[in-house]
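Troubleshooting log. The previous structure file for this entry was overwritten by mistake, so regenerating from the original sequence record. Sequence copied from the archived sheet and checked twice against the printout by T.R.
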Amino acid sequence: MEISGVSANAYTSAAAAIGEEEELKEQEEQKAAEEAKEYGVATKEKQQKDTVQFASSDYGKEDVEEKAANYLKNIMFVNNLTAESNAALQNYLNTFDAADFIKKYGPFSSTAEISAAVYAAVGSLIKQQQDE
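Regenerated output below.
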């Protein structure tokens, strides 16, 4: 199929208009970068992208033991627990077996996962005192 009646001038003027738009856009970006630099604002190049990298390794036995102990200590310190509840949590903390805990609830790749698993394990032991 052949297209007739379109001149080469129309094509080149359309291409020139696109080129002018791109040039204007680049000039605006440069002007914005200069203004930002003038006011002390850091700018990034257009090609640079923010990236987030997550650790691909799971927490080990020592890490799980430390995070679980910290979480339990926070519960015992912050909450207004009954004496029985406090004793039960302290007993759980004293007899905590990280390897068994990881086997039941793990593997863990974040502190939030460890905290959730600890709460699942000891949630029934947490009893707050009634204000009188």
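The chain has a mean pLDDT of 77. Archived copy saved in two places this time.
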